[in-house]
Write a structure and sequence with these properties.
Structural class: alpha/beta
Number of domains: 2
Bound molecules: adenosine-5'-triphosphate, magnesium ion
Strand order of the largest sheet: 6-7-8-3-9-10
Order of helices and strands: EEEHEEHEHHHHEHEEEH
CATH architecture of the largest domain: 3-Layer(aba) Sandwich
CATH topology of the largest domain: Rossmann fold
Number of strands: 10
Number of helices: 8
CATH superfamily of the largest domain: P-loop containing nucleotide triphosphate hydrolases
Largest sheet: 6 strands, mixed
Shape: globular
Distance between the termini: 39 Å
Helix content: 25-40%
Length: about 240
């Protein structure tokens, strides 16, 4: 099967300085990949490089077998990638539905937009209930759901999610991870970068990122039901905390 997303030898950073190196990722249509790592490990940079949002010094990014190298971010969205950015970045004065519509893409038309909204409201019913509310008046967890919903509006084949758990209460973290699991179950490949290792309870694959490079890889099928424990051991070190 053609990988939905394939990243080979990616080196990327800012101002001529590499931050991530030798990044290799394979994402199939049925993959939920969690990229876990500490502050500053290069998680956001990896996602930005895949979206064409930072400097790429070497390596290739392919989606569905087609190279995206050198293409604009907008073309990558048209090709089937979407990013839910760190910090949510919803428009506080716009309503939920207006925010969602900013994630629509040219060529979808009104029928396509309506269908995309219906799909988002089905996966994220809270947004349907709140469709007329200003985004800035919603809770952090609701705003995170909105940011995920907005990224879904373009109908991505691979959804990239940057630190969805940031600043949320544990119960809301679990809710947001469950939503990502539902999105994955509905047929969208998911790549979620996280400091919160609880993401491993819903992932099929895990990579651990340390100081800009991949230090470990885990596959749920290989470790039985123990992905969470295996990820903890890889993340914190077996002799560590
Ligand atoms: N726009 C930028 N210009 C220069 N350096 C940057 C920029 N953004 C990030 N960096 C540097 O790149 C390194 C990796 O940052 P990155 O944001 O990718 O980490 P992260 O794993 O997402 O961290 P966090 O968990 O805090 O979000 C850090 O040393 C950071 O200072
Ligand atoms: Mg980050």
């Amino acid at each position: 099967m053609t990988a939905a997303l394939s990243v080979r030898g990616l080196v990327a950073g800012y101002g001529g300085v590499p931050v991530v190196r030798a990044i290799e990722l394979d994402v199939s249509p049925d993959t939920f990949l969690a990229v876990v790592g500490a502050n500053g490990a290069g998680k956001s940079t990896t996602l930005r490089a895949i979206m064409g949002l930072c400097e790429v010094f070497a390596g290739t990014v392919e989606l569905g077998g087609t190279s995206l190298d050198g293409t604009r971010t907008s073309d990558r969205v048209l090709a089937g990638l979407a990013l839910c950015p760190e910090g949510r970045e919803v428009f506080p004065s716009l309503s939920v539905e207006e925010n969602l519509l900013t994630g629509a893409i040219a060529g979808q038309g009104w029928t396509g937009r309506r269908d995309a909204l219906d799909r988002v409201y089905e996966l994220l019913p809270r947004l349907g209930e709140r469709r007329g509310q200003s985004a800035g008046t919603m809770s952090g967890g609701e705003q995170q759901q909105l940011a995920v919903g907005r990224a879904l509006m373009s109908g991505p084949t691979v959804l990239l999610v940057d630190e969805a758990s940031l600043g949320l209460a544990p119960v809301m973290v679990d809710r947001v991870f469950e939503i990502l699991a539902n999105i994955h179950a509905s047929g969208t490949a998911v790549v979620a970068v996280e400091q919160n290792i609880r993401i491993s309870s819903v992932a099929t694959h895990i990579v651990v990122l340390e100081q800009g490079t991949i230090s470990d890889r885990l596959v749920a099928d290989d470790v039985g039901g123990g992905l969470y424990q295996a990820a903890q051991a890889a993340y914190f070190g077996t002799g560590g905390t």
